[in-house]
Amino acid sequence: MGRKILDKLSLAQADKPAAATPARRMGSAMSVGGLRDGLERITSNSVRDLDPSLIDQDGLRDRLQFDAEDIADLAASIRAHGQQVPILVRPSDQPGRFRVIYGRRRLAAIRQIGGPVKAIVRTLDDKAAVLAQGQENNLRLDPSFIEKAVFIGAMRDAGYDGTVIREALGVSKQSVSSYVVVLDAIPLSVIEAIGAAHDTGRRKWTELADLARVEGVDLPALLGRMGRALQAAESSAARFEAFLNAAKAVASGDAAPQQSDAAAQHDLVHRGGPRPLRLADGRRIATVKRSASGLEVKVSQKEAPEFSTWLATNLDGLIQELHGRWLEESGSND
Question: What is the pTM for the complete model shown?
Answer without folding.
Answer: 0.54
